[in-house]
UniProtKB/TrEMBL annotation:
Name assigned to this protein: Isochorismatase
Organism: Salinarimonas ramus
Molecular function terms from GO: hydrolase activity
SUPFAM superfamilies for the chain: Isochorismatase-like hydrolases
Pfam family, one: Isochorismatase
UniProt cross-references to Gene3D superfamilies, sorted A to Z: Isochorismatase-like (3.40.50.850)
Amino acid sequence: MTLSTEHTALVLVDVQEAFAEREAAGERRNNPGAGERIAALLAAFRTAGASVIHVRHASRAEGSRLRPERPGYAVMECAREVSGEPVLVKSVNSAFIGTDLEERLRAGGIATVTIVGATTNHCCETTTRMAGNLGFEALFVRDATWTFDMPGADGGTIPAQTIHDVTLANLSGEFARIVTAQEVIDALARR
């Protein structure tokens, strides 16, 4: 795989402190090294001069850790923005709804979006599905996304890794190419 820095963007979805708070509160997640891989991808995109777009979730739900006035709304250290990098704010799962993400990508000549963040099966998956439906090539970075255990519809708990794996299977081929952070970093270096 090779990536054109002029036509590729890194889209960081909801890399916010609310998810660190959930983990600190005892919720089990997968991909504990996702933050380090996000930081490495961010550094690689910046070094290559490729586009970087940050997306934050501003929840409207009462009590949500992701409400803008709560500490959980803040960006995690691994994904800190720098001057000139856009920060889009959404209040639904898809980064394309209620933002100018699609317009930014098209105006910038971006054909490929590389998606990282939280959570795998909610905002990352929804954004990826829409990217594919809108005609963008979506790269879903399997080791730079993560999720949490969830209650099953019929009781019990579905492990985070199972949810993550099923999401990857759902996206693979039709909506996205499933990749690792290192594959993307190597592809940027080959440009």
